[in-house]
Amino acid sequence: MAHNGIPHCVVKGCDLRVKVKMRGLCLRHYKKWLKYGDPTKGGTYRHNAPKCEIHGCQGKPYARDMCHRHYKAWWKRQKRLSQMTQ
């Protein structure tokens, strides 16, 4: 669909512009198509986004359900423990 000669995303209900030829999809839907094989699959976290498993931390999970800072600290502890047991 085009408004004022500017192409817009072909996904129903999406009015974002298509900046380059990406199957008629806006960047958001094009990325979903690449990741899931369908521009309408997947989703975004808004209110219930996962948080770091460490109590009180609001960080985004990086690995092992921990934010980058807590994962890095955990990994360093694991490394020290493995060196002590050798």
Q: Write the element-wise H/E pattern from the N-terminal end onward.
A: EEHH
Number of helices: 2
User: Averaged pLDDT, please?
Assistant: 83
Give the N-to-C terminal Cα separation: 65 Å
Number of strands: 2
Main sheet attributes: strand count, strand direction, barrel closure:
2 strands, antiparallel
Give the proportion of residues in helices: 25-40%
Q: Note the overall shape.
A: elongated
Work out the strand percent.
Answer: under 5%
In short:
By secondary structure, the protein is mainly α.
Features:
86 residues, mainly alpha, 2 domains, two-stranded antiparallel ribbon, 2 helices, 5% strand, elongated
Give a description of the structure.
There is one protein chain. The protein is mainly α and 86 residues long. It contains two helices and two strands; from the N terminus they run E-E-H-H. A two-stranded antiparallel ribbon has the order 1-2. The model has no long low-confidence stretch (mean pLDDT 83).
